[in-house]
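Readers outside the structure-tokenisation community will struggle with the description of the input data as it stands. For illustration, here is how one protein appears when written out as sequence plus structure tokens:
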Amino acid sequence: MRGMTALYHKRFFADVRFALIVMIGLLAGGFWGVAELFLIVPFVSLWGAVQTSFDASYLILARHYAVALERWINRRLDHEILLGGRLEDTYLFPLGVAKVVTIPLAGPITWFGFVTAFTTLGGLGGAVVGLWAGWPVLAELSPVAAGAYWVSLAGLTFGALAVGWWWFVAGAGERRLEAVLDPLSQAS
């Protein structure tokens, strides 16, 4: 399971780099004369946010399973030797609490939480720049085309926010994991 957490970090940063490179490329192309490219940036930013949140859900899955296995082994040894889960709760972010992806809503901020917030706000900033710079293109579109753009962007954004809230903040994802892992926790 620790290998799965390592894979998460590799995947997360690969996805962040990919989204960042595409966003910079689109912004550069827009400033070099293809202004329509600006309007793609918010979609790429949203895609990057959803993809990296998916990566985080994988990390949460791996951490829950690793913690359950550590507890099971520690009970068998009658001594708490495996502390990875406790270290990660303290150093990265805690499991089993309301959080925005990996940023707990209560408790101290960690570097992990800061990096999550930083990449999220960076993506949001890129989306805002794309919309700002692409505004003249939107103004020239027909009302139907501009409306379709806004409905698409708003629908995807609010859909991602609603499902993300349900899965992470409301804890639906972690509750599913706990339901499966509870028998392991109860096993002696």
About this structure: Residues 98 and 108 are 13 Å apart (CA to CA). Strands lie at 99-100, 103-104. The chain has a mean pLDDT of 94.
